[in-house]
């Protein structure tokens, strides 16, 4: 996750170069589009309208679009990871993880920007939340709460998915070195899957 390095000729802020070196430039754009749109609408919305309800609706729509895009599209294409959850009858939530074939290398640009966007966005919303409290604009905390809930859902999901994938790859590599049969499903061309139980439901 953090070990991937950008190619030497990349220059900071050179967006055209980043998109050219990305394996999925359109996906990379949409990975940032909705979250930046939500942040800009929240921060600059009052410049154009005093209607809080309108700003709230626009922000929530973009946050939902962002959540769906990151969870179902950009994570799978940019870093080869996917997560989802299933609620059980006993009230617990089962998290399901899917990861790419480890023999398929990641594009370092896609990987670095995916994780950067994943972690920076909730940090920005945390700052907005603190400012709301300090300035007593408590109604704006409604937008911040929705943003943090959706953003942290993806942060936790992908962090656990990445951890699960690394454990499976390490286990598969060790089994392969020892000549065990457990490496076949991981070192082959199939997707590896992991199931982790977590108490309570996030949604």
Automatic annotation (TrEMBL):
Membrane-spanning segments: 28-45, 52-70, 113-133, 140-158, 170-192
Entry keywords, A to Z: Golgi apparatus, Membrane, Transmembrane, Transmembrane helix
Full protein name: Golgi apparatus membrane protein TVP23
The species this protein was found in: Linnemannia gamsii
Top-level taxonomy: Eukaryota, Fungi, Fungi incertae sedis, Mucoromycota, Mortierellomycotina
Cited Pfam families: DUF846
Function: Golgi membrane protein involved in vesicular trafficking.
Membrane topology: Multi-pass membrane protein
Location in the cell: Golgi apparatus membrane; Membrane
InterPro entries recorded: TVP23-like
Primary localization: Golgi
Sequence similarity: Belongs to the TVP23 family.
């Amino acid at each position: 996750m953090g070990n991937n390095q950008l190619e030497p000729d990349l220059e900071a802020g050179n967006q055209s170069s980043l998109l050219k070196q990305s394996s999925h430039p359109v996906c990379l754009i949409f990975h940032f589009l909705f979250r930046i749109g939500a942040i800009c609408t929240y921060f600059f919305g009052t410049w154009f309208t005093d209607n809080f309800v309108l700003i709230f609706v626009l922000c929530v729509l973009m946050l939902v679009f962002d959540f769906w895009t990151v969870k179902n599209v950009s994570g799978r294409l940019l870093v080869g990871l996917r997560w989802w959850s299933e609620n059980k009858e006993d009230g617990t939530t089962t998290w399901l993880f899917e990861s790419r074939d480890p023999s398929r290398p990641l594009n370092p640009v896609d990987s670095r920007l995916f994780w950067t966007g994943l972690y920076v966005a909730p940090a920005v919303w945390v700052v907005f939340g603190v400012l709301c409290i300090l300035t007593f604009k408590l109604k704006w905390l409604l937008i911040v709460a929705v943003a943090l809930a959706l953003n942290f859902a993806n942060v936790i999901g992908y962090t656990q998915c990445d951890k699960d994938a690394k454990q499976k790859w390490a286990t598969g590599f060790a089994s392969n070195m020892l000549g065990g049969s457990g490496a076949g499903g991981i070192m082959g061309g199939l997707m590896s899957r992991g199931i982790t139980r977590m108490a309570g439901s996030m949604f």
